[in-house]
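Protein-tyrosine sulfotransferase, Stegodyphus mimosarum. Tokens?
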Amino acid sequence: MPLVFIGGMPRSGTTLLRVLLDAHPDVRCGEETRVIPRLLGLKSQWLKSPLESRRLKEAGVTPQVLDSAIAAFTLEVIARHGDPASRLCNKD
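Tokens:
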């Protein structure tokens, strides 16, 4: 499933781009969830912390496993955040 991610600096037109893409019948962007940036921030904190990195390693959670889990979760958040469409878009 093709995904479109919109990113940019504040006040740079990213919301306008999201609205324009959302107007296309084959694209669904939906509202911002703000879940994905928080999740990526947590991942960054975990990997920067020696204690958390050790705990993840002891639990068998490699960086690849963590990336796969985050990718699957991100896709679910985007896919279930609105009506089905052939192209999904996210601006968080």
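Helices lie at 14-22, 35-48, 50-58, 63-79.
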